[in-house]
Write a structure and sequence with these properties.
Mean pLDDT of chain B: 97
Number of helices of chain A: 4
CATH architecture of chain A: 3-Layer(aba) Sandwich
Radius of gyration of chain A: 16 Å
Mean pLDDT of chain A: 91
Helix content of chain B: 25-40%
Order of helices and strands of chain A: EHEHEEEHEEEHE
Number of strands of chain A: 9
CATH topology of chain A: Rossmann fold
Strand content of chain B: 15-25%
Chains: A alpha/beta (185), B alpha/beta (429), C alpha/beta (310)
Structural class of chain A: alpha/beta
Number of domains of chain B: 2
Oligomer: heterotrimer
């Protein structure tokens, strides 16, 4: 099986710094900002962005995590039941500028679910989306505001984001799909 | 109607007659409904119907001392006809049917009704058991004498215990006039009331109210004391516990003339069968512990328990497709008792001769019937068994109206191939 | 993680991993009840039937709230308003309800084994909300959840269950559940209310309260249900309370940090004194609160086929 590393640890750090700058620039600072990661990759990325922003701007941006499983659009069918993750947003979302963070954006369905979930939790002033990888293949009209890298894999390729918090290393890999593997998202 | 005209020659079978000790390959000639000859080789008389029994077992027609035929009153569960068909298919040629019908068999007109229906069915010799007490209420003695005159062979309030010790004493004394046994359903209602399953593993795990072994044992001991006091003829029904077996063994050792039966579910199953709330495994007395089952098996082996009864208790779905607490007790048994008894032989617990005796001569003797042996001049009540025949218990194939077997799907080996009463075939597979 | 059975009939048949799956899922769902909008769309379009053949306002309400917080539609069918009283059997009733195409059935029934009977007749997930004296698995799960939440673990703890063990479905579910999760279980009560052979389930039996309380981390006082007892197995409620009631004095026998539980509803002053019920050791209201999360978890996990998520 061939695989190819498209982002390494240094590259990831550079991307996150750029996104942090873009967030700060777009929002004219980081006051009233909240970072909400989608488990599990997005949560790690949210915490890293929070740390980078603290270094850059000196202020602590509040960070939470949002499980979208209960809002999936494939549940009401006689469908599969997924293990739940955690929703933990220990601050008020009302009036906030919320940066939603996920590792890979593909169909857009997870983000659709996340928007519904956030709506149930409060009414932010606005919601922006940051993703590490945009791999195309959208099924809903959703676009990221901040994109780490645009990747267009061929039909039999897949993308794996590995982060040191959960996988021991920082890298993004493109590799051939295992024959029985179902698409993610 | 049975006609006794034909001559039949059962050829080449292994004839096993525990009463006489005969065991070997013989031919058996039936003339005028009776056993005419048993010899190594019999030349067929002209016109004789020949039954090839090569590789088969030829034994005395089986006798079931404890069945429920449900008629009159509960014809939707079973009738005398369907019960007779089930009995014949199970290899039985004689059976005693319990009195808990509606109306109960507590007077001679019911006894006569049963005998008439039995004769009309003509498939099995049916010996009614009369009630001990009027209306099975346990209060005052039924008219036992007139029922004897109409043909009962024993008395029992089976289904209900005789809780009143004085009444039980009277029954054991009074029946001595007729030399018939009192068949006792041993259950102390004070200990068993509301109970559903064995007290122990089953009650613990299911949360269903338990019936302790002592509900049976205490009444077994009481009845043994009363039998000693009165000299009456006591037969203990469906023994299910180790301590009952011990008590009977001790009483017999002291010379008391008492007899006892058990049923296949007590030597085959344990209380584990009710852990899934299967109402077909709901029986009374309840299925007991593994230790009790072991003791019952030992009681069969050493003769403490004299015979095996089916305790055939057919019910309809109306009584069984219910919550466990609402369901009626009982399992059908006529069509599974023989193979389940043969299983004890296959397992090495009993000799074949012991097994057949437990199902023929022993119960016949308890009821004073001239049945259960293959003697010359006796009625040709004969069961031909195919000992190698494999079967799977399938309620849908029962002749009985009851589908409530505690053994669905069980794989067994050996069953009746041909059943005859007075020389006429009542069942042929 | 997949569940072996599509039903929840009792904790006896669950593995430790399955119990943990229910508890972890309840942990994720608990947060929903503290939101302003206490609802997620997960079971939208699904119908949950609460089939209650025995009065139980609390359990039924808890299941109903749980279903509604997951956006399921709930229908309550209780014996008093049904045709059961007209001779219709449980199976007839259930088949009729099945014809109305619900997605899950929650059943409370006075007969042990009634939920299991339904599994043979209905092609639907069956959730046991208490059957006779058999099991009450969601109560067992919420007790486990509450202990894990309050004590941080279950492994190695000692649970003492006090009261009518014989007729208690809660006791049975707790015995199985807590033992599977690594706790030691003691039972304590009048010998007339402790089933013979209880030791074979691996529990320790006490007929005096003081030694049963010594060293216990969790004390579960059961409701004395006199109405269920044919022959009163003890002389009077007053004497019961004297011998087995938890009062402030007895609370002091417990080691610090021990918690008091009760499946409710409480007979005030019988199995537990009001001061104890509302003391800082009592987690009785946490049990009620957690009951909703646990029942949400059960409804969620049994509403479809479990798969390992990405």
């Amino acid at each position: 099986m061939t695989q190819k590393k498209i982002i390494d640890a240094e590259g990831l750090e550079r991307i996150l710094r750029r996104i942090a700058h873009e967030i700060s620039e777009r929002n004219q600072g980081t006051r009233n900002l909240a970072l909400v990661g989608i488990p599990t990759g997005g949560v790690h990325l949210a915490h890293r962005l929070s740390r980078i922003i603290k270094e850059m701007e000196g202020n602590q941006v509040e960070t939470g995590e949002l499980d979208t499983t209960l809002y999936r659009d494939d549940l009401p069918l006689k469908g599969p039941i997924f293990r739940l993750k955690r929703t933990d947003i220990p601050f008020d979302l009302n009036g906030r500028r919320v940066i939603l963070i996920d590792d890979v954006l593909q169909t857009g369905r997870t983000i659709r679910a996340a928007l519904d979930a956030i709506t149930d939790l409060g009414r932010p002033r606005n919601i922006q989306l940051a993703v590490l990888i945009d791999r195309g293949g959208r099924e809903l009209p959703i676009q990221a505001d901040y994109t780490g890298k645009l990747v267009t894999p061929t039909g039999n390729e897949e993308i794996e984001v590995r982060l040191r918090e959960s996988d021991g290393a920082d890298e993004v890999i493109v590799r051939e799909k295992k024959p029985d593997e179902k698409p993610k998202d | 109607m049975i006609t006794n005209q034909t001559t039949k020659l059962i050829r080449g079978g292994r004839i096993l007659d525990p009463a006489s000790g005969r065991d070997g390959i013989f031919d058996l000639l039936i003339q005028n409904g009776q056993i005419a000859r048993i010899d190594p080789q019999i030349a067929p008389p002209p016109g004789a119907e020949i039954i090839d029994a090569t590789g088969l077992l030829v034994v005395p027609g089986l006798v079931d001392i404890h069945t429920h035929l449900r008629e009159p009153g509960y014809e939707y569960k079973e009738t005398i006809l369907t019960g007779s068909q089930a009995a014949a298919a199970g290899g039985f040629t004689s059976l005693a049917c319990m009195a808990n019908t509606d109306p109960p068999n507590d007077n001679s007109s019911v006894t006569e009704f049963i005998r008439e229906r039995a004769q009309k069915a003509g498939l099995v010799n049916i010996y009614p058991v009369g009630a001990v007490s009027k209306g099975l209420k346990g209060e005052s003695l039924a008219e036992i004498g007139s029922m004897v005159a109409s043909g009962i062979v024993a008395v029992s309030d089976d289904g209900n215990p005789v809780m009143n010790s004085g009444l039980m004493r009277n029954a054991l004394e009074y029946t001595q006039i007729f030399d018939i046994p009192v068949i006792s359903h041993c259950e102390d209602l004070g200990l068993s009331q509301g109970g559903q399953v064995n007290e122990g593993l089953a009650s613990l795990r299911t949360g269903l109210a338990g019936i302790p072994a002592e509900a049976e044992v205490s009444m077994v001991v009481r009845d043994l004391l009363l039998a000693r006091l009165t000299g009456g003829k006591l037969h203990l029904a469906h023994i299910s516990t180790a301590r009952s077996v011990d008590a009977i063994r001790a009483a017999k050792a002291q010379g008391l003339k008492v007899t006892a039966e058990t049923a296949p579910h007590y030597f085959t199953l344990t209380e584990e069968a009710v852990l899934s709330f299967d109402t077909n495994a709901k029986v009374n007395p309840p299925l007991r512990s593994a230790a009790d089952r072991e003791a019952v098996r030992n009681g069969l082996r050493d003769g403490t328990i004299d015979c095996i009864a089916s305790d055939h208790a057919p019910h309809s779905l109306v009584e069984k497709d219910l919550e466990f607490t609402q369901a009626s007790s009982g399992t059908v048994g006529l069509e599974t008792t023989l193979p389940l008894t043969l299983k004890l032989v296959q397992e090495g617990l009993l000799s074949l001769s012991q097994a057949i005796a437990l199902l023929s001569i022993n119960p016949a003797r308890i009821l004073n019937l001239k049945k259960g042996s293959l003697s010359i001049g006796a009625d040709a009540d004969i069961t031909v068994i195919d000992p190698g025949r494999k079967l799977t218990v399938d309620p849908e194939k029962f002749r009985s109206r009851g589908r409530n077997t505690a053994f669905p799907g069980l794989q067994l080996q050996g069953r009746a191939a041909i059943t005859l009463i007075r020389g006429e075939i009542t069942f042929r597979e | 993680m997949t569940l072996k059975s599509r039903h929840l009939l009792g904790l006896e048949r669950l593995t430790r991993a399955e119990i943990e799956y229910f508890l972890d899922t309840a942990g994720s769902l608990k947060e929903i009840s503290s939101r302003d909008i206490k609802k997620v769309p997960t079971l939208r379009g699904k119908t949950v039937i609460n089939l209650f053949f025995e009065a139980s306002t609390r359990t039924r309400t808890s299941f109903e709230i749980a279903a509604k917080r997951l956006s399921a539609d709930t229908i309550n069918f209780s014996a008093s308003t049904s045709s059961v009283t007209k001779g219709e059997t449980l199976i007839d009733t259930a088949k009729n309800i099945e014809a109305m195409r619900p997605d899950l059935v929650v059943i409370r029934h006075p007969a042990s084994g009634a939920p299991e009977l339904l599994t043979h007749w209905l092609d639907l997930p069956i959730i046991n909300a208490g059957d006779g004296s058999h099991e009450h698995p969601t109560q067992g799960l919420l007790d486990l959840f509450t202990v894990r939440e309050k004590k941080g673990k279950i492994d190695g703890l000692t649970l003492t269950i006090i009261g009518d063990i014989t007729h208690s479905r809660v006791a049975r579910s707790d015995i199985y559940g807590f033992q599977k999760m690594g706790a030691r279980v003691r039972v304590c009560g009048p010998p007339t209310l402790i089933p013979p052979g209880i030791e074979s389930l691996g529990v320790q039996k006490f007929t005096r309260l003081e030694p049963a309380l010594e060293g216990a981390d969790v004390v579960m006082a059961l409701r004395i249900q006199l109405e269920r007892l044919a022959a009163p197995p003890f002389p009077s409620l007053r004497e019961y309370s004297r011998l087995f009631g938890i009062n402030l004095e007895r609370l002091r026998l417990l080691k610090p940090g021990s918690i008091i539980m009760h499946p409710g509803p409480i007979n005030r002053g019988v199995e537990i004194s009001p001061e104890v019920a509302y003391s800082s050791s009592s987690v009785i209201l946490d049990q009620v609160e957690n009951g909703v999360a646990v029942r949400m978890a059960v409804l969620y996990l049994l509403s479809g086929r479990s798969v390992d998520a990405q």
